[in-house]
Design brief:
Number of helices: 8
Structural class: alpha+beta
Helix content: 55-70%
Number of strands: 5
Largest sheet: 5 strands, mixed
CATH architecture of the largest domain: 2-Layer Sandwich
Order of helices and strands: HHHHHHEHEEHEE
Radius of gyration: 36 Å
Distance between the termini: 72 Å
Number of domains: 2
CATH superfamily of the largest domain: Histidine kinase-like ATPase, C-terminal domain
CATH class of the largest domain: Alpha Beta
Strand content: 5-15%
Length: about 325
């Protein structure tokens, strides 16, 4: 009785499995591998049904035994064929995933390039548009020096000259920060060196920058990604970590370029970065940008022990 019940349950389960598998054939675009596996489930159910009838009839006949054995052979052949052919299905899924990742990187690269082009355009418009206007204002103020005789007018004129000079210097700084000419003209090492020197002059933090890539260039996309990452990491250290010292090393070893960043700030618990509401957009952007150039970004931090970051990519 128990064996009979088990046989009936197996028939029901195999019919269910066959019906579900057959419904999935459309999703697999009617691949032969899945068709063979689906039909094998159906034949298993048929085989068990035959066995059930034979149990009610009593002693199985020779003919039914032969049919049962050959159905078993047929099932085995279909399963072997399905398993062998189903590899193509997995290869197709892998290719689809590879194509998706490649397309995603192309989109992100296009966004980054568009962003950089807009930075360059805005920096050029700012420099070429407002720069000449302020220079003309400065020339006009200089022409007034000989015409203003009273002391109060001279003070006002000097203050105005000072403000115009500050405005011209600010425009140059903004233009250079948007699209640093040092990066495009002299390379990554020079650009980071110029940026850190400028930060050191503010006395906000002491930055020690070392590199063995003084005269070496990378692809434009990689230089931009590393430069923007350094700027973001320095900005985070100044604004959030309270660091007084930052150490940056940019080095090339054989085919690999590495950037090591360390600060002595207050640090933080990196487990909080797994939460979307606490993950900073800056760090997320660094990670996304680095991935688009086939690089890796590793961030480590411990409360009270500072923060370190590593960027590594092929030259």
């Amino acid at each position: 009785m128990v064996r009979l019940l088990a046989l009936i349950i197996s028939i029901v389960l195999l019919i269910t499995a066959a019906s579900v598998a057959l419904r999935f054939m459309k999703l697999t675009k009617y691949r032969l591998s899945w068709i063979l596996l689906s039909i094998s489930f159906a034949f298993m159910a048929v085989r068990n049904i035959i066995q059930l009838f034979e149990r009610f009839r009593g002693t199985p006949s020779y003919t039914w035994q032969m049919i049962d054995e050959w159905i078993g052979v047929l099932i085995a052949v279909m399963i072997i064929g399905g398993v062998i052919l189903i590899r193509e299905l997995f290869y197709s899924l892998k290719r689809a995933e590879t194509d998706r990742v490649r397309s995603e990187k192309k989109v992100i690269n296009a966004i980054i390039n568009t962003e950089e082009n807009e930075r360059k355009r805005f920096a050029k418009d700012l420099h070429d548009g407002l720069g000449p206007i302020l220079s003309t204002v400065k020339m006009s103020l200089s022409a007034l020096n000989d015409r203003i005789k009273d002391a109060s007018g001279t003070v006002i004129l000097n203050n105005t000259n000072h403000l115009v000079n500050e405005a011209i210097a600010t425009i140059k700084d903004i233009s250079n920060n948007l699209s640093p000419h040092v990066l495009s003209n002299f390379g990554l090492s020079s650009a980071i060196g110029a940026f850190t020197t400028k930060i050191n002059q503010t006395k906000a933090v002491d930055i020690d920058f070392k590199s063995n890539m003084e005269a070496q260039r990378l692809e434009n996309d990689k230089e931009v990604v590393i430069y923007r990452a350094v700027c973001e990491l320095i900005n985070n250290s100044i604004l959030h970590s309270g660091a007084s010292r930052i150490e940056i090393e940019l080095n090339k070893h054989e085919k690999f370029v590495t950037l090591q960043f360390n600060d002595n700030g207050r640090g933080f618990d990196t487990s909080t970065l797994s939460k979307e509401d606490t993950k900073g957009m800056g760090l997320s952007n660094i990670e996304t940008r680095v991935k688009t150039v086939e690089g890796v970004f590793i961030l480590e931090s411990t409360p009270g022990k500072g923060t370190s970051a590593l960027i590594k990519m092929i030259e």
